[in-house]
Amino acid sequence: MNWELFKYGLRNLNAKGVALIMVLWVMAILSVIVFEFSYAMRTEVHIARNFQEELQLYAMAGGGVERAIAELIYKHDPRVMAKRKTMKTEDLPPEKREWVTDGRGYRITFEQGSCEVKVMGEAGKVNINLVSGMLLQKIVTNLGLSGEIRDIVVDSIQDWRDPDDFYRLNGAENDYYRSLKEPYDCKNGNLDSIEELLLVRGVTPELFYGKKGAKEKKGEGQEEWFPFGLKDIFSVYAPGEQVDINSAALPVLRFVLGIPGEVARRIIQAREEKGFENHRDLLQRVPELTPFLGEIGRFILFQSANPYYTIEAKGKNKEEGSVRGLKVIIKIDPKEKEGYKIIQWLDSFIS
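^ that's the sequence the OP posted. Answer follows.
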């Protein structure tokens, strides 16, 4: 055997093996780079698509808000209302009928999806800054609280809004709020927004928002309504303790006026055709209310001129079902250039 030739071949084979390994390493590194580049490009595409979708949803929700504002401006325009009164409801196409401001949903269709709009007249709620302790206790009791827990909520709300530092039996002032893990002062003044209630002793998110996903329960002759909370009943823009029967939503009819569930639903159904004009009109169209009107009649308003409204709009994508919500509180004011004034605007809202 020629050992020199064998050694040469072995060295040549080793060199080729090293070259092959180097090529494999280079290919592996290039594959990783290509993969990372592709992943980055896919991520950029997804981000761009999500951003575009977000803009579309926001635009649809904004369009719903603008449509609601237009309807509310018409509602406060005497000329438009006079013209509507001369026409029978059945003669008006659905898209030209007056919107009912009790929180029912109106659907607006777009090419990319749709928008559900709800309008709540603040006159259909109770003013949290003006409500008496007696009515406040009744409402909190109807929401399911009792005993000391109820009294803590009622007394603490009154202590929060009164100007002094004297606390009621179950209330709270600065000494309580300053002892919290994240301390703050008692307001000792009117609430500026209804969300401020969440700062008050005893007011839990469950009490404020209601129990999400809960359904009506019927027990021994009594109904319990869990999905509603203080936010559905109170406002800082309402006239006072009296509520507009044409704007009052179901929780207000139930928990403030104490109207049984079936009668409350009958009221909501009857006013869809047209609003109630007075007590006589109300009883003629909803005679089931007669036994209760003597007690609650003084708390009812008709066609209130209160110009404050809450608008909730949800844009929904047609294909993927993505949702983007807006919540706006406005005041209809002819003195304003646009005919209205925005009081509050929440960009991200999911009820």
